[in-house]
Amino acid sequence: MIQPNILIDRQPKVTLIYAMTGNYPTYNLNDNFDGKLSEFVDDIFQKGFNKFEKEFHNIDSFVCTVLNESGERGDHNLRLSSKKLYLLEAISFKIYDELNRDDFNKAKDTLIIMPDCLSVHNPECEKVETEYGDVCKRCKVTCPAHKIIELATKYKAKAIFSKRKLTEQIKYFSDKSGDMGVIGIACIMMLAMGMRTAQEISIPARGVLLNYTGCDHWNDKPFGSDFTISSLESILKEKQDARNKNT
User: Fold this and answer.
1) CA nearest 186: which of 230, 232, 143?
2) Alpha helix ranges (H) inside the chain
3) Alpha-carbon torsion 106, 202, 113, 156, what sign?
4) Residues 58-73 pLDDT 10s
5) Is the Cβ–Cβ distance between 194 and 184 less than 8 Å?
6) 60 and 109 part of one domain
7) 200 in the same domain as 177
8) Is 0.85 surpassed by the pTM of this model?
9) 206 phi/psi in degrees, rounded to 5
10) 162 CB burial (10 A radius; 0-12, 13-18, 19+)
11) Can you tell me the distance from the alpha carbon of 139 to that of 151, in angstroms, rounded to the nearest whole number?
């Protein structure tokens, strides 16, 4: 007797082991997690705005000014960044900086990526344009970029001006090195973003914040930005000491 074709599902049944045993691989949210998280975030904003009241004093008034613009600028949304977003990005930078610390210190080489706004200190800047970032020629001793190059030389690092295609830039130097960490120098709204970019291509990144924003994103007449040079040297020295300790 000819048996009819019978379709048999031979796929193994999925057993929800974790749910059945209570052994969850990472986190396990309960019903009030979202409420606790909202309370935690509200607390961060309240404490953050109080703690950084002086530093963030001008943000709200700047946003009000931008709201009256035509909105035709390509960076209009960036200029509308709220005080909450500034705080979020500042915290993100600090968290990434701490998470990447050990891996950065273990990396053989170091690339320092400088913001282009530093070159505005010298209207006759002699930096040389290359495919993977402009090169500082140390044309003015008082320029912050000149000081960065001095530190880079002291700690056997390389320094280059940033370019818009950041992933391409970092990957180029990483491929040449084979084992590299990055230090980014940038404003609050750009630094954590750049560190995320580095993380996506598995490059450990640390950072130094600009003390203020002088570029044309925020000013009709751009002026040179600045940063705390000792913060940069602290990162370089920590890495040098860590590597010397392990050799």
Assistant:
1) 232
2) 17-21, 33-51, 59-67, 76-79, 83-99, 101-106, 144-154, 166-177, 188-200, 229-245
3) positive
4) 999 999 999 988 778 8
5) yes
6) no
7) yes
8) yes
9) -120, 175
10) buried
11) 16
